[in-house]
Amino acid sequence: MKERRGTKITSKRETEITPKEALSQEEIVEERRETEITPKEVLSQEEVDLLLRSLRVGKIPIREEKEVSDEEKEKSPRYDFRKVGRFISKMRLPSLEVIHRRFANDARSILSAALQKIIDISMVSVSVGEFGSFLDNIPLPASFVVVSLNPLRGLSVWALEGPLVLSIIDILLGGMGKPVKAEGREFTRIEQRLLRRILLTLLKVYQHSWEPILRIEPEIVRLENHPQFVMIVPEADLVVSTRYDIDLGTVTGKMYIAIPYSTLEPIRTQLQTGYQPSGLGIDRKWLERLINRLSECPVSVRVELGRARITLRELLNLKKGDLIKLNTAPDEPSALVYIQDVPKYVGIPGVINEATAVMVTKVIKTEEEAREEILRRILV
Prior knowledge:
This protein has three domains: 2-57, no CATH class; 87-272, Chemotaxis protein chec (3-Layer(aba) Sandwich); 300-379, Roll (Surface presentation of antigens (SPOA)). Helix content is 40%, strand content 22%. It contains 13 helices and ten strands. A hairpin with a 4-residue loop joins β5 (238-247) and β6 (252-260).
């Protein structure tokens, strides 16, 4: 009974398998045989040790790489996609260099007036590099200033060397700006406040330098003493850095300005074009037409011959034919000529061809002169 049942089950299974399924199973078995590694193809541990020993001794020659000549390296240099910005040259942003050079020229006079001392500021270089290397090249101690450049997105970093900052503060406090050792100390709050005053003055000049390209509003965000607190961008990001030399006479130091390349990206086309100065040439024809049109405009003229003081009773008793004595003489330059109610001339009153006239003897050029003439007539 058991054998018959087994045969029935076996025959039933054979009838269930279709020809297509049988063919597919055969293909799967063949693929497994091809992919499987036979024991003959696998190296034993002794064979692996023997192979390594032969390489070490030199029985099996090692394939060496060919040396590439310098000419071939120049023809096909290696390209690092992580440092694309190293190929960005300052000549691609010519207007930025002109802006910073103009800032150095204007800051020279403004800072000299603020410190009451002749100071020389010159731009040394403009370079593009990683932000981390920019911070590493600044000698410590130094004062780091984080500055916003609205409406541009992002922040910029200004850095001044420590001895330079202390000398500027010494001049502000009435000193001569002698060299002071800055190693091993941090800037106090008072020193930072004094430095902030100087920086606010420089930021106004910096804003004016940017006006031909873009109207920015730079503001101080914070002052720091350590570079790790001014990480405005990752160390691998690119920044456009500018270095200045500041000569105080007794001390010479450096100032640095770093702007992330991502901040300048929205205005890259404007920085790539030529610099358009704010002061354009004067149109002579337009100026002549303007002068001609202005000369045709009518103005009011009023002459004050003199002044007199009377009482209220005398004023009420005045009638036709009465005389009022003025505080001036007819042969003196006592007449004050008003143009649009502004005192402009002094003259002598008289008569020409039966018409009242004034001969001009003095031209009033400043407000102080006009104020003096009015006060002299009141006090007489």
